[in-house]
Design a protein that fits this description.
The complex is a heterodimer of chains A (about 290) and B (about 220).
Chain A: E1 11-22, E2 25-35, E3 39-43, H1 50-57, E4 65-70, E5 73-74, H2 79-84, E6 86-89, H3 101-108, H4 117-126, H5 140-152, E7 158-162, H6 170-183, E8 190-194, H7 198-204, E9 207-212, E10 215-221, H8 222-228, E11 230-234, H9 241-244, E12 247-253, E13 256-261, H10 264-269, E14 276-278, H11 282-293
Parallel strand pairs in A: 3-8, 3-9, 6-7, 7-8
Antiparallel strand pairs in A: 1-2, 1-4, 4-5, 9-10, 11-13, 11-14, 12-13
Chain B: H1 2-29, H2 37-57, H3 60-66, H4 71-103, H5 114-142, H6 144-166, H7 174-181, H8 185-213
Helix pairs in contact in B: 1-2, 1-4, 2-4, 2-5, 4-5, 4-8, 5-6, 5-8
The chains are: A alpha/beta (about 290), B mainly alpha (about 220).
């Protein structure tokens, strides 16, 4: 089911046979890569392994098998060099609540050779972050903006974001997506963007990694999904075996059926006059995969 | 590394000021025949404990371990913070005791001698060296009980050993005490400092190992 992206020169991250075991949950073996110049959306239900994967990339958890190469280097052996080139934004702020925004930046700055205080202040201004405010006085959304400012101020080549849009209002989310689009413009950087709000990825992601129960179910470009995948709907009597074999997560009701196909062309060639093919959203793709696995 | 130490004091800001005010008040108001050891120890441990508590509450290890920082530096910086608290507490004590002696000549206020300064620094450093590996293993919240143990047990233990020794109940300790007390004073001071340094170095090595193996 996994469509792997070939490891190539432009890969900024290459994960091979990555494994991590907890009591009652096993992640992997995972194989995927992230390419320079692209935003990869990392989707999956809660507990699927998104945060665990991100923590393994950041060496916050110890992997039990496999390899992680970031910028062509092992993420543990070359940890410092690798981390100097990574910006991170997590789902919580993990900052000192009693410190001001300015002092928080002074904790981050000295560890990054490319830290740009002017850039940090410029992002803070753009996000209406007062430098003298304490972190505890910021809303969840503003904390995320502070984390984003800290992540971007050292001009990272790779931005790793774990659920950055959760708790953000629509305007802030759009603002974040605009920044990501700008960030990726020079085609030398990459973004890994974990989220359960897949509508954000519909707008900005180039690639999609879908993880469930510690396994990657889908690893492909968003364009490929939108070109080849289709939402198929029709009356029950049109659900012939040729069609059924092409569908994922078929749901039946008194009014008809619906399901997802990975092969829009093949389904279209079946010439079933009463079925309708629609372009799916990423959320629908995720839901039908979920339905299939139930 | 300096940023890591500095951030501990930024975070402790208000608490440090209160602890120093408390230290000054204790020196001035309470008759103290033990010298600087108990007060410097209490101040250092209160600040180190608070620092650990704040780090745990804010889950700051996630951020620190995500920054381009060596785990070793994160651990060593905490020991440096403890040492600075230790020396700062001793300095404040010394200044306050001297000022108090001049202001209240009738009151008995223990001054800082070379011996008591070394005793305060080594005693606090050794207890910190025992405490910090446990903090890195269990976290401040889980080590609350241990914290209390580390706050009070050393005093009771020392008091008990001293009393037992004075009553002749620890004869096996006599040759050791004799050989130590007959050492030339400078050699004794250097020896005590060296032993403390070795204990702290072993403690740092253990803490680094514990911290490196931890996950967050």
């Amino acid at each position: 089911m996994t469509t792997s992206i070939n490891v190539a020169d432009e890969d900024i991250v290459a994960v091979t046979d990555l494994e991590k075991k907890f009591q009652g949950f096993t992640l992997g073996p995972l194989n995927f890569s992230l390419r320079r110049g692209y935003i990869t959306g990392f989707i999956g239900p809660n507990g699927a392994g998104k945060t665990t994967t991100i923590k393994l990339l950041m060496n916050l958890l110890h992997r039990e098998g496999g390899a992680i190469r970031i910028f062509g280097q092992d993420n543990i052996e070359s940890e410092l060099d690798v981390k100097r080139r990574i910006g991170f934004v997590y789902d919580e702020s993990f900052l000192y609540e009693d410190l001001t925004v300015s002092r928080t930046a002074r904790i981050f700055g000295p560890h990054y050779p490319k830290w740009n205080q002017t850039a940090f202040e410029s992002y803070a201004k753009r996000f209406d972050l007062s430098l003298n405010k304490r972190v505890k006085e910021l809303s969840r959304g503003m904390k995320m903006k502070l984390n984003l400012s800290l992540a971007l101020a050292h001009d990272p080549e790779l931005l790793i974001m774990d659920e950055p849009t959760s708790g953000l209002d629509v305007v802030s989310r759009q603002e974040l997506l605009d920044i990501l689009s700008d960030f990726i413009q020079d085609e030398n950087r990459a973004v890994l963007f974990s989220t359960h709000i897949t509508s954000d990825l519909d707008k900005v992601a180039d690639y999609v990694l879908f993880i469930r129960d510690g396994q990657i179910l889908l690893n492909t470009s968003k364009d490929e999904i939108f070109e080849n995948y289709a939402l198929v709907k029709g009356p029950i009597d049109e659900l012939v075996s040729d069609l059924n074999s092409q569908l994922i997560g078929v749901r039946k009701s008194a009014y008809g059926f619906d399901g997802l196909t990975k092969n829009r062309t093949k389904v279209a060639r079946l010439n079933l006059p009463r079925i309708v093919l629609e372009r799916p959203t990423l959320e629908q793709v995720m839901l039908y995969f979920e339905e299939e696995l139930k | 590394m300096s940023t890591l130490v500095l951030k501990d004091f930024w975070v402790l800001n208000k608490r440090t000021r209160w602890m120093l005010i408390y230290l000054v008040a204790m020196v001035v108001l309470i008759p103290n025949i033990f010298g600087p050891v108990p007060l410097v120890f209490l101040v250092t441990f209160a600040l180190i404990g608070q620092s650990g508590l704040i780090d745990d509450k804010n889950k700051i290890a996630v951020t620190l371990n995500s920054l381009p920082l060596r785990r070793r530096d994160i651990v060593v910086s905490r020991y440096l913070t403890a040492l600075i608290c230790n020396v700062l507490g001793l300095a404040i004590y010394a200044v306050t005791a001297e000022v108090a002696r001049r202001l209240f000549p009738a009151r008995e206020i223990s001054q800082v001698s070379l011996g008591s300064a070394v005793a305060a620094i080594t005693f606090t450093a050794i207890i910190a060296a025992l405490y910090l590996p446990l903090y890195y293993r269990f976290g401040q919240a889980n080590a609350q009980l241990l914290n209390i143990v580390f706050m009070f047990v050393p005093f009771f233990a020392l008091g008990l050993i001293t009393r037992m020794f004075a009553n002749g109940k620890l004869p096996w300790l006599k040759p050791f005490v004799h050989s130590v007390t007959t050492l030339p004073y400078p050699l004794l001071i250097v020896g005590v400092l060296l032993i403390a340094a070795v204990i702290v170095l072993i403690s740092i090595t253990i803490s680094i190992g514990v911290y490196r193996s931890s996950e967050c």
